[in-house]
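Per reviewer request, we include the raw input and output of the structure prediction for the construct analysed in the revised manuscript.
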Amino acid sequence: MTVTLNSSRTIATPNVSMAAAIGAGTWAGLISGVVVLAPVFTLQLSRGVGVVPEMQLAASSVIGLSAYDGAEGFVLGTLLHFFVSVVPAISYALIVRRLPELNRWAWLGGPLLGLAVFLVMGFIVLPRTAFITPPSVSPMPPAPALLIHMFGLGLPISLIIRSVGPLRDGR
């Protein structure tokens, strides 16, 4: 449902179904999950860390050093990467469902979402996992990782949520 504010502007209302918000969040997370890989891979390749070890880093949070033994770690890491992009996107979409005015602040809300993901992953989730890196693989430095979370993950999620589907605010 939308409410017309004037002839050229409408906003979503909280009556958007939960299923529609989850669908929009899922798509936003999948797309952002792909988008965020470009700067991640570019930075890591420039540092001599390959594409496969970058995805295995994520898998090591579940299966430890065995993540670096082969394709299993790459596949699991890729699945975890997309899980970590889809869950915040769905959460953001559900928040926008209740607070549609947040769409007006997508340029701010997205980077804040990325900051939240960075902080939650770095200080709550990863310390409680088996996350480990072998000497041959180094994790991304914190400053670039933060910027990538803010502008490569959070911002695309907020802009996609703002511009597509039932959560669109008319911009």
